[in-house]
Amino acid sequence: MGLRSPVRSLDCRRLVQLDGICMLSYTGAFVLLAALLHASWNAMLHGNRDRYLSMTWMSIAIAVVSTFAILFLPLPKAAAWPYIVASGLVHIVYNVTLVRSYRRNDLAQAYPIARGSSPLLVTLGAALFAHEAIGAWHVLGIVLISGGIIALAVNGRNVSRAGVLAALTTGATIALYTVIDGIGVRLSGGEALAYTAWMFFFYWLMPVLFVTSRGLPALLKPVTQTPMAVGSSLIGGLVSIAAYGIVIWALQSGAMGAVSALRETSVVFAVLIGRVFLGEPVSAKRWVACVVVAVGAVCLGA
Length: 302
Description:
By secondary structure, this protein is an all-alpha fold. It contains 14 helices and 2 strands. The chain has one domain (22-300).
């Protein structure tokens, strides 16, 4: 049986009412976990020298797991299928733009620009296409998170126009697939897990694109030549499934802009990972920006 909306299926004693939107107190904790997982797999991707190859092996892991999962899951309702297809295709575009963004920027720069630009776009998209309305605290939280995230990216750095454009393009695709999934999962008949599996099934297109551009030997040789890099990519793919699966589950009942903004607190984790494991510098102003992001997250739960 697929995952059902937490508002309908669980005890509502711990619900917080925000302008007519019921948000489970523990849902935010799960989204924060998703943020940590998301920052982790992005660090794995950024840490590999050939990021296109790494993303392809991540996608293979995702596609294999999703293929296995759909054999045992019920089908989502028919109304959700146009969104599944659209989201699956947009995710492929996202993967390509993310790789391009990481070629032009380090993790602590590209990741915040891409993630920080998306919550405001998601909020706008949700208002236009899903007729969502959010309260003043939500708006303040989203603005603080987005502002703090962008400050993390540009503070004290020479940001190239090409690098910013690549990161913003990635942010636009993030916003697009988030809105698509926010609407689609609500039409799936409570089958969030099945929706996620079928959407991730489209990740089979990534190895097809890679083999088309570089050839099959370029995909397979690293298995014997650099098995550790391939292994880390496969692990990153599994982490990615968990990270975004949680987000899709949360989108069933939570305002899209709020869920997106809370997920994008992952940039704070990305800064920490970049500092500890990749040796990227973090200034005092960047720590202040992290605090702004944290305050924004508190506003989302106020």
